[in-house]
Structure prediction request, 148 residues.
Amino acid sequence: MSTRLSTLNLVKRDRHVSGPDRVDRSFLDFVVDGHSLYDEIGRRSDRVSTLWISPPAAEEEQKAVRRLLGLERGDLPGDRVSLYVCPECGDVGCGAITLKIEFAVDDVIWSDFGYENTHEESIDRASYGSIGPFRFSRQAHEELMSLL
Prediction:
């Protein structure tokens, strides 16, 4: 893995849809080194980040932030953390794009991206093999998440 540090930013995005049982959704997108992860991995499976803006889901967003900070265990087996979830209900049972997060003294590493749900044991890692790993400054990562 490269020792180069990546940059992480959060950018407001909107998912606009039409049709029954589908809603527009505003959320904060994870942008790594200037590249939207929503554009790279979320949009293709119609998933939005766990950081919803509309409608606000403050309690769920705080749980997501705590998982991203390593203050709570992952929400899926193997301590995996959901990053992009169903835009209709946020339930990982509908399928989620997940990852492993490792915390070192100075770094946070996002790796092992995959697609999974709560009713199948397998994780589709092959479709996400070109994503990451990303190494962030732990201080910058914590400062960004503390803004939420």
Summary: The CA atoms of residues 105 and 116 lie 29 Å apart. The chain has a mean pLDDT of 93. The radius of gyration is 14 Å.
